[in-house]
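[Solved] Which block belongs to which protein?

Original post:
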Amino acid sequence: MIDAPTLHQLLPLAFSGAGLPLPGMASGKVRDWYSLPAGRLLVTTDRLSAFDRILGRVPYKGQVLNQLAAWWFEQTAGIVPNHVLAVPDPNALLAEEVEPFAVEVIVRGYITGVTSTALWYRYSLGEREIYGYHFAEGLRKNQALPAPIITPTTKGGPTGHDERLTCAEVVAHGLLDAATWEQVQAAALAIFQRGQQVAHKAGLMLVDTKYEFGRARDGRVLLIDEVHTPDSSRFWKAESYAARFAAGQEPENFDKEFVRLAYAEQGYRGEGEPPAMPADLWVAASQRYIGIYEMLTGQPFQPGAYPVAPRLLENLRQAGFMG
């Protein structure tokens, strides 16, 4: 684990983006991407987003997300093929060009969460038919479901926010044909099961996650985006879960949720200008991301050189992506 003083020194160098001299750049909250003749180049930055906005930069976060996703893609390739072609840099991945499906596939193993799309939030409002599933009376927050379920959402939707769907509505609304949707659901549940098994061995619980799929030019359905990272998934510490659940306490989260909670404690939930937060928060976030990488993969984290941009440029040149 990288010590806190070193991470404090790296905070000003945290990777906000390379601005590569390549055509066709587009950006999301965390990644920048470029359409190249060889495929789509995805560059993962150190930007951290929550509440639908970028809040700060966390040293090594981009490297963790990129390399952890690449590791999971390798672990799950026998379940469903994915878009990975090469990993030319700790912060970059070359992927096949894929037409993404208009559905985000959320798999949930527990009834939890406080956002408007979360199971516990809907249940706490008195709903018992949620995402097309019936939920019995008397459930408790953070309780395990009898079996993992899929709760799809649209990407953005007419409001700009994810809109809840039932599994039947995915086909009824013409978002996917029935055969493809069946294939996607089967793959998602199998990947989630694999993820729970790996997390359990690492002392963690994979609580819920988001998957994205798309269709390659040759017609294959591919797993895309990222897999089982602290950005796309909720993890709890397994060792303390049972005792805390029995006592009515919240599980020990081990993902980026603690950053959201730190802002919420300051009264911020996404409206207006976010408050300034101490550097210690971003250092703690960096250590948590690195810790998750090491726990899940069983491998020591090998930090890439900072600043990132010169290293990235050189590695892309050596890989033949730049002149």
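(Second protein starts here: sequence line, then its structure tokens.)
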Amino acid sequence: MKLLYKILLWNIVIVAVCLGVGGYSFVNFVFETSLERETKQALDESSILQFAFETAALNIPSRYDMLQDTTIEEIGYSLEHGGQNNSTRMLHISDEERNTLYLGQGFGVDEGFLQQIPKDGKIYQLREVNGRYYIHTGCKMEALDRVLHLETMKDITQIYEERKEGFEVYRKVILFVLVIASVIMYLICRWLTKPIRLLTKATHKMTEGDYSYRAKVISNDEMGQLTDDFNMMAANLEQNINMLENEIQAREEFIAAFAHELKTPLTAIIGYADMLRSRKMDEEKAFVSANYIFTEGKRLEAMAFRLLDIIVTKRLDIEKQKIDTEKIFDYLKEIYGEYDRVKIRCHYEKATIKVESDLLKSVMINLVDNACKASDEGGKVEIIGKRLEQGYLFSVKDYGMGIPEEECDKITNAFYMVDKSRSRSRNGAGLGLALCVEILRLHNSELHIESKVGEGSRFSFLIPWEEVSEHEVLD
């Protein structure tokens, strides 16, 4: 059963029980009040009839020593049929031995009740006779030396009928109120549970794979907060799923690129090796074939070492040491000092930084190699080191072919190359920048790329000041 109908059902049950108990209590209270009033009136009537009987007995001529039975019958008849309430009054008069002297029409004698009448005082009981209800009173009275028992029965059936009619009317009122209340409560419950329905819809959408769907916030209460939290959770889930999908896609692209990069040199190696073993070749052709095999083998070796470096770097816990930036730039000058194809210039400021020097040198060599490969014959590459407030900035700038804007976010992926033919011709495999990214991650830094097609590129990263004294930084 839906929550909406559960809430509605329980509300209807609670309202019905409350109205039922309240209505029963109210109608019964009115009935008890009326019954108490009628009982008091019946007792008062009994006293009045007793007094009237005794008075009538005293007014009878005293020719008899005792009150005669016939006289008692006459007085009883007169009392029963006289007055305003004679239609609802019935009398029963009996003597000392409880023998009936006068019995009104329809009066049902109760011997047990007659035995209970005390010498002084009155008693009463409620009786049902032939489907009608009466107040039965009893008392003793004395008249001319005779002790008599006076019983009265007052018809109060109307009170019971009124109670019955009250219950009938109240049942109709309850039914009407429940119908109206059910409609109102249904509308209220739909309004209260609308956020839940919207959340359920959003959940179904996400189950179907639509992770971008968000539940609409329609209130500022706890349900609105829950909806906000759900949407935030959905956003995080969508982000994580997108990251997983991107990772899966990147792995697939990595595997495809890796297979392709292996296939190209292996094809050349197998082809030239087959030529060497299957036919006789002159010395020049044999040298060319062997040189192709050697070159492609070295390329495979470099690729394997780069992949191994990337894997190791991802799991590496480096130990940083303080080093002067001048030593890093001297090392680069020593390597590229006699580089003829491209002019390499170094501009740097002295400082002390805390890094893993071998890994940092590997980053700089990869960036400078890429800059040289991107530059034309006789081009210029600038290696820059600058001290900033946040840390030490390294930059490598070339004036070569540049990188299209849409390619800048992809070139750090393994095996990705903007110009594959040019990179392969210069023994590139597209792994250098991926290795640089992993090394910089270990140094709490990241690689920034600025490039414009036809004007060149600038690769830079910032090594933050870390546990280096101000004196060491400024020296």
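Accepted answer:
You had them paired correctly. Confirming on the second one: DSSP finds eleven helices and twelve strands in the chain.
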